[in-house]
Amino acid sequence: MTRTTGPRGLTIVEFLIATSIVAFAVLGVASMFPAALRTVIRGGETTKATMLVQAMADIIRSEPFDILVARYNNLNTQTLNVSCPLDEASAPPPYDDYTKKKWACDLRRTGAQDSGQGLPGAYGRVSVECVDASGGVVACPSSLRRVTVSVFWGESASQSVSVVSHVARSR
Fold first, then answer.
1. Which residues pair with 163 in a beta bridge?
2. How far apart are CA 88 and CA 68, in angstroms?
3. Within the chain, which residues score under 70 in pLDDT?
4. For the chain, which residues make up each domain, given as ranges?
């Protein structure tokens, strides 16, 4: 009686080794997903902060030149007394503190993590200084203002975005 030898299959040892190699590779790839997700979230937060900083800087640049220091210098949304969302029906905008309060509410959006709006633990600061043409701080009045708008967020305000711009008196 002769036996014909056909294609030979895998032994159990070969199968276990192959399965171990594949499992190790899959676990390595799967461990990258949480790190990638954290990076995407951080990038989204930075984009939101940049948009909020830029929006406030644009608002300040649109204000009358002579009131910039009085209205916005040393603005800190942490010390601003505001109840969000703003009740625009009983006190319709514009009013003096509207832009400050709206910006504070935009930063604080309820459920920032869940809704994708606002930033977790965010607050903003604005500094308006009178400067000369070389950028040195001088006594007011001068015809140039340096406006610094910053947003801080995250645990212990560990992340921040700032924009520095200059506003000149138009003649």
1. 149
2. 24
3. 1-7, 110-118, 171
4. 12-76+120-168
Task: Starting at the earlier edge strand, list the strands of the sheet with 75-76.
Answer: 75-76, 123-130, 144-153, 159-168
Is residue 148 within 8 A of residue 126, CB to CB? The reply is yes
Could you report the per-residue pLDDT of 36-71, keeping only the tens digit for each?
888 888 888 899 899 999 999 998 998 888 888 989
Cis peptide before 141 (omega within 30 of 0): yes
Cα–Cα distance for residue pair 106/59, rounded to 1 Å? 14
pTM over 0.85: no
